[in-house]
Please model this.
Amino acid sequence: MPVTGIVAEFNPLHSGHELLISYARKDLGSDSVVIAEGADFTQRGGIALLDRYSRAECAVCAGADLIAGIPAIASCSSAEIFASCGVSLLYACGCDTILCGYEGSSSPEESDAALIKLIASILTDEPSQYKKVLQNGLRTGLSFPKAREEAILSCLPGHDDIRGLLSSPNNILAIEYQKAITKLAPSLKLVLKKRKGQGYNDSINDGEFVSASYIRRQLSCGNLSAVKKHLSSFTYKAIKNGLDENLLLSDRDLDLPLQLALLREKYKGLSFSRFLDVSDDLSNRIERLLPRYQSFNSFTDLLKNKSLTASRIRRALIHILLGITDHDLDLLKRCDFRPYLWILQASEKGRSMLSHIKKTQGIPLFMSVNELGSYKDMILKKDLEVRDIYRAIQISKSGILIPDENSRRITCGKAHDL
Model:
């Protein structure tokens, strides 16, 4: 039976996400929908509004069957790493199709899909023309995304329309999904669905569909009523409970933890470049500008220059906070981005899929770390460490004692505390 996979953060889950899950069921005829969900720190460099278990439960209530957690190392890494891990986990779960939303052009979805496949092949093969223009762009001071765009255009004369495709974070992820499929799971098919309403960074309320970033901005101002119509009853309830108990997190909650992490590393006398995505130049800038640190967002702005985008800097700072290094990423790559299947939530149908997945995949599958006994590989240890950091920030903000992973059990698709 057809099984469709979706890579998502659901930060938070909104009507556009529900439409995507519904599209997988009704239009693609999928028997099951599997989600590879981001961890508690996000791909664009930040912290998730709700913990990943709450988001996973919302996804099951929205019609998904199985929610597999993306390891933290990949969740807050580049689009390439995030997509590779998501695709690899969905492939391990038995998916035959990857469905993703994208910022559509005026062309039909099939035409955009063909163009995205062509762009992905250039980025995968890296022909000499692409490399030459990319290096020239970087030498002249272009940011990496801009230099890459010019390099791709040089390989596709007459396709100036791709500038629009390359400017959206969602389209960049679609390209990375296609690259990951080619490298890790060539039997999978990528299906695109044009997003309705706002793009990722839009700041206005555009009718029926709005972006997750718009919802987060409204919630940061206490305007839950302004976004209620864009949330299903279960997501609204999760967010309302989070607001009432002071458990919703935002980038402001990273201000002090990040500053303490940066100071800790500074006085070790070691370069920040040992952390993932931190170049020697960025390491020097962090050390030089650290006395001017006031907050996560203001420090990001302080560190920006022509060659470093805000997203790249934010991810680098998150890696320092979480202690994620190049070695951690190497471990993830060695296992083809699927070290294990940590099932966060499952419907009854999703639970029925688990035994078959376990038989056909030679990797650990679990819903609770208590099932693993003494097994704790380095990637899982990092996942547990990151969970504890998120938990500590929630406890500090709310004053509520939140159970750790060893005190959590899963029954009937819902998480309960022991």
